[in-house]
Amino acid sequence: MTVHRQNSLEPLTIDNWRWQPFLNHAYQALQEFSPEPYPIAEQFLLQRSTTGSKSKPVEVTTATWACRTSKLRQVRAACVEAGSAASVLNFVINPSTDFDLPFFGADLVTLPAGHLLALDLQPALKTDAAHTDSVWNRLIPIFERWQKRLPNGGPIPEEAKPYFSPGFLWTRLPLGEEGDSLIDEVVTAAFNEYLRLYVDLVRDALPVSRARSQQLLEGQKGYTAYRAEKDPARGMLTRFHGSAWTEAYIHDVLFDL
Ligand code: DBV
Fold first, then answer.
1. What's the CATH code of the domain at 189?
2. Residue 4 placed within a domain
3. Separation of 231 CA from ligand 1 center, angstroms?
4. For atom 23 of ligand 1, which residue has the closest CA?
5. HEC string of 184-204?
6. Could you tell me the pTM of the whole model?
7. What are the strands, taking DSSP E only, across the chain?
8. Residue 56 forms part of a structural domain
């Protein structure tokens, strides 16, 4: 498998990776904010190993791409390509706490049992109307348009609810033609619209007071600690790359606030 990193700003490319068009689109959408590289330690830029059985080994690649802008503290993509075993794009935008912005989150996961797909603009302060109202009013119509064309992904853990918005798009799709065409026709459009709304919010965001920024920081820390503690990829990444690498990756790269 070939992975290309032309320089630290171009999006990484992984041959035959299901989610490459989504990362490319996100990269294009962020250009207006003049992204700069976000440093990632060498051992997390590209990690390879082998999974599967002795008779049927599967090569695994986990690669990370990240950038930042003046309003976005960290934009990062965790990319996994493991042939029939897994294909993942987990993409999170962490805004600067100098702006009243939500997180952008996408979890696009293909496993042997099917696709699990999540999209959301997630609040740092869920019970704070000043933080949520203007986002949710614009997000909910987008959510409704696309979620109704997708099966519901099923229940999510009660403890996760403080971190989700009412526009949490969540579906499970079968592998094969039916799932692929829903990804091409619905999930792609939903991803692009969630991202377009997010870019509009970022463009319009104005700096907040120091006190407000401190509140947002506390909210972001709670969210980040939750995501690191409950990362659903922990099991998979530990199988692929071992526990020490995975814990460092989760705490120092993926959820590094
Ligand atoms: N999820 C991550 C990171 C991943 C990742 C950093 C590097 O937060 C992948 C990869 N998510 C991933 C994998 C699985 C899930 C599942 C591999 C499958 C785990 C398994 O079945 O073994 C949304 N993702 C899930 C689940 C949810 C989410 C609700 C199901 C959990 C379960 O069934 O227990 N992830 C969750 C979420 C966001 C997100 C709300 C934000 C939009 O990124």
1. 3.40.1500.20
2. no
3. 7
4. 118
5. HHHHHHHHHHHHHHHHHHHHH
6. 0.96
7. 3-4, 13-14, 36-37, 46-52, 57-68, 72-81, 87-95, 103-111, 114-122, 169-173
8. yes
Residue 85 CB less than 6 A away from ligand 1: no
User: Is any atom of ligand 1 closer than 6 Å to the C-beta of 231?
Assistant: yes
pLDDT of residue 97: 98
C-alpha to C-alpha distance for 187 and 204, rounded to whole angstroms:
26
90, 119, 152, 156: residue to mutate for ligand 1 pocket, most atoms within 8 A of CB: 90
257: amino acid identity, one letter: L
Residue 224 located in a structural domain: yes
| pLDDT tens-digit map of 149-184 | 999 999 998 988 889 999 999 999 999 999 999 999
Reported residue count of the chain is 257
Provide the number of structural domains found in the chain. 1
- Amino acid found at 81: E
Residue with CA at minimum distance from ligand 1 atom 16: 232
Expressed as residue numbers, the domain containing 24 is 12-254
Instruction: Please indicate, yes or no, if residue 42 is contained in any of the structural domains.
Output: yes
Using the 8-state DSSP alphabet, how is residue 209 labeled? P
Q: Is the CB of 120 under 6 A from ligand 1?
A: yes
| Residue with tokens 């939500």, as numbered in its chain | 102
